[in-house]
Amino acid sequence: MSRRRGGSTAADTPLMQQYREIKARHSDAILFFRMGDFYEMFFDDAKVAARELGLTLTTRNNGGAADVPLAGVPVKAAQDYVRRLIERGFRVAICEQVEDPKQAKGLVRREVVETVTPGTVLAEDWLEGGENNFLIAVQPGKRAGLAALDLSTGEFILETLDERDLDGALSRYGPKELVLPEGTPVPTPGEGAMRTEREPWEFDPRQAAPLLTQRFGLHSLDGLGIEAEDAPSVGAAGALLRYLVELQPTGAPHIGRPLVCRGGDTVPLDSMTRRNLELTEPLRSDGRGSTLLSVLDRTVTPMGARLLRQWVLAPLRTLDAITARLAAVDVVVLDPRGRPRDLGALRDSLGRLPDVQSALDGLARRDTSTVLEGIAQDFDLLHDLVDPLRRTLTQRPPAAIGDGDTIRAGADGVLDEARDLRDGGKRFIAGMQARERERTGIPSLKVGYNKVFGYYIEITKTHKHAVPRDYERRQTLTNAERYVTPELKD
Hints:
By secondary structure, the chain is of the alpha+beta class. It has helices spanning 14-25, 43-53, 78-87, 166-173, 205-215, 231-247, 271-276, 292-296, 302-313, 319-334, 340-350, 353-366, 371-378, 383-392, 413-440, 486-489, and strands spanning 30-35, 38-42, 58-61, 67-74, 92-97, 110-116, 134-139, 143-150, 155-162, 177-181, 194-198, 259-262, 446-450, 454-460, 472-476, 480-484. It contains 16 helices and 16 strands. Strand 15 and strand 16 (480-484) form a beta hairpin.
């Protein structure tokens, strides 16, 4: 019996019918189909995954004459497998169980919750911190339009430029994925990027305008500084947003308002010029040697590194713009901000000023010139700086925000409440696990969490006989059962 990738056959089980229906809507992606603690892949997806990831290719009986090729990966390890497929240029659609198996009437409902492509990677450890990961839609024409989105940072740029400058712009952005109207040749600098074709009507500026105003809560495009000449980039933005809705059904609320750029603001540099000037890449094939970026880059954050890279690849054209940028940088350099540990060191140093004053007073009493006496009288203990630092900072602040608590308990009531919720939840779960182990006599009982079911109690099947009556079963695994209790739900 023949088997069609998009449709079902008479011999299909309900599970395989569900798989085929979902796969038909995501035919261009490898479908990670959630089944318990594994993502399963079938048919050609299984063969590709086995070849690219070194997985064992097995078969599943589908109730017909032939077995179905099958390969799977554990949910806990799936992120690494997805990353490897993305690096090889594949799309991956993540299909989750979106229904509690215990509450399901028949087959558990499943839906694709996310499609990952090279241009939509969000995991920080997959990306180069000092470079943007741009997904770019292109509206070709004599006046071309670009819509560039870095989903990992939320940066959104609309650029309208002459057709002859398109290659240079793409070379500057270095996109990982290009969204183009069907039949459009791939621009030269985009040859290494994944190509995604969309229907030409999606690039129509008239279709795009409502998408942009709705996305950013505006009555018209005037609120974004968009003018009639920006129509090509508006059309590209519409196609990009439509595509993004398909990839991220749950939405991407962190996308910032677009920055509108027009040809003429910067000097266009094609890939050959950029390479010969060694702006970001050395001429030597072995990668050795200095670049302009490596000489200039003294940034201390990934955001700063990305911005400097953009500036180097798109030098300003006018003197006024250059002067304004230099003035802004000068202000920031001359007014640096300290990190938590720096502020702690400042507090401790300023806290020694009374000792300095005491020593100065002793010297002033022996000084007949009264010079030291005058200094001692004017000596400022800087209480206006020391006191707030003492009231606010922990005794040993961390090196950076996020590495530990910076603000001491009692300094801010709202922060204290947030910490109580954070730490209290962890203490509660640990305490509950200990109580339930003692109550049931099951030493291996553990409280866990996942995004589908929330918190659960897991008990191995060897101790199934000791499960209390108030436990509600939620999920069956190969060697264990997962339960919830009214207390755990709360």
